[in-house]
Amino acid sequence: MPTLALEWLLDGPYGLVVALVIIGGGTVLNYLRTRREKMLSFRVRFNSRLGFDPPDAGNVVRLIGPDHSEIPDPGMVVARIKNVGRSSITEQDYVHRLGLTFPGADRRLVTVDVTEARPPDLQDLLTGEGFEVHDNRIILPKVHLNPGSEFKLVALLEHTSGTGKPEVQTNGILRNGRVFLDSDGRRLRRSTLIGAALTTLLAGALVAVLLVGLPGGRQEDCAEGELTVSGSSAFADAVRTLADQYMAACRGSKITVEATGSVEGLNNLSSAPEDDRLNRLALADGRFDVNGEFPGVEIAGTLAVVPYSFVAHPALPIEDIPRGELARVFKGDVANWNQVTLADGTRGPDLEVRVVGRDTRSGSRLVIQRILLDGTPPAGITANSCAAARTEAAVNAPIICEVGSTGAVIDAVAKYEGAIGYVDMPNAIDAGAAVKQVKIDKLGATLDDLNRGYPIWTVEYLYSFGPLAKTGELTRSFAGFMVDAEQADEIQKEGYPPCVQPGSVPQGLCSKGN
């Protein structure tokens, strides 16, 4: 079922920032940790004027419109529209087109533009179709959005002054879908948000005076060029969010995030051509012996704690498994759940075991091998696919299959009865009712339980080729942006405890390097 999630930000009388997300797919429970059926939530991520408060009072932003006259009381809209679900949203899904209205006697839209479309051809399509722009209202086109497709909408308003926060209203209906306003939104730092909003304005307004901050609060923190970040599929979405923020604030930058798996990300970095490897970073779940396996690669920083949750088919009547029994399952020692003793001392159901593991490119697999299995490799596959029956050579073994990504684990576990697998905690939460989380010795993969001894977690490491100080300018700049305490809230909103918390307080678990 296609679902439209809409999230907006309001600032003071001078500005307005709105973010929209379109979600396709049947499962929207626990989206960003707050999804509930038929639940509409509103969020405020930013609340400030475009002008700066004391001690910088008097530094203001003036905008000159296309007719060369000054725009009175300017406001800004930055809208992000993305299909992050598993099914396409077609033109036929729009029963009534989505619209944004900005109430107010004098408020008026000056310009509207589209930027940063993925795939790039989508921008040409949207520009060709255009938007219906009325005095204080935008009507979006009925555009086909495949899973992962996205674009950003940038608009300029005038006459946004007044008391209280500027109001925004939405309308629109999706066939078999709903509008979802996310109240648990990510918070951008003030300087980054203002910089992003104004620097993405491509609709013809001329900036006469522009005193805004960029990442780190200084323009020299921005860098131009292209950068590729590859590795952990578990943490890739969090880094994509940070990359979007950086690119919005630093217009000359292009950052591509590839969810290849930790091992392949490190391989890509180590084996990249000489003229390319200094413009690359790798994400890996856990610390790797880079000296032996990946020549030239060095740790560039730590990003967050990554807890892993064991997820099972929702119909599997198991809530809690002792650590030793769970290890037996992933070693391939049991073929039926009735061979497993649960935490309450009872036996599991009479149902064949189906283990969904990750392939050898996965850092998650290595975490499970190192911590749960005490260094013993997981059992080898016994079936050609997760759907296949056992081969003749594995008649007395469980069905064991391997997949290449976090999303594929969730899909397989949700589909096959008796299945169990492992994914990072935020993705387990995002899967909602499609899977169930299984505790280990009465502990779950929450931060509180990690501190109480939940064992299956690691640290997300950032790797560069050679010392970070000797890499490309954009590589250094974006790496510094990610590990800065200013991004702690953003990483936390993605579900990962950041290694550097707000106020530059270190996360104790990161120093343990599990």
TrEMBL record:
InterPro entries according to UniProt: PBP_domain, Phosphate_ABC_transporter
Source taxon at top rank: Bacteria
Keywords: Membrane, Signal, Transmembrane, Transmembrane helix
Domain PBP residues, every copy: 218-486
Keyword Transmembrane: yes
Signal peptide as annotated in the record: none
Transmembrane segments: 12-32, 193-214
PANTHER family documented for this protein: PERIPLASMIC PHOSPHATE BINDING COMPONENT OF PHOSPHATE ABC TRANSPORTER, PHOSPHATE-BINDING PROTEIN PSTS
Name of the protein described by the UniProt record: Phosphate transport system substrate-binding protein
Species whose genome carries this gene: Catenuloplanes nepalensis
